[in-house]
Amino acid sequence: MLSKNYSNRLFGRTRGRSKKKIDLKKYHQMVAKYQFDNCNDKINYILDIGSGYGETSIFLANQFLDKIVISCEKYIDGNIILLNNIEKNKIKNIRLHNGNVYDVLEHIHRECFDLVWIFFPDPWPKNRHAKRRLITSDFLIKIHKILKQSSEIHIATDSTIYTRFILNSIYNCKDYFAWLNQSEMNLHIKDYFDVETKYYKKAINYERIPSLFILRKL
Question: pTM of this prediction?
């Protein structure tokens, strides 16, 4: 099991606002069944960071049957939905890390991921919370170290504030990544991927057009 990293804290809730009680013992038993521990050199991996309710992990698992999707999410309610869908649909190629993505990044010391997805990370729009944002130049460089050559990062956000923040991070990492869709970043995500998450639907409902960034490792 991966060790917990407390030096790089991720903010936000681990439970929803619902008062519904959950059986934590049963939950941890289910997590243990699908727990990600380490990379195997003979297996190809995809890292889904902040998978929310698991829609992106399910999509990726179905799209890439020959790869293992590592769903990295600390939100318990979302993980329960994902685990139930894995069981219901008998999905074999998803593993779960119930915690901080930095646990994964600092545990792995080689290039083992073919693809990284980060869809709708919390934008932390207030200036005093900017330091809580996940996607920074330093974070992208950490991702660069675990990506295989010419592999990609896909980032989606519907926050104009976070878009500017991400743009600055990409500029600072121009020696590490090529920005593949620079001229069409505001195209509908569904022009690229036929996947709808809760946060994608929320963006569309509020008439916000998500930005999609596709970066390829140099």
Answer: 0.90
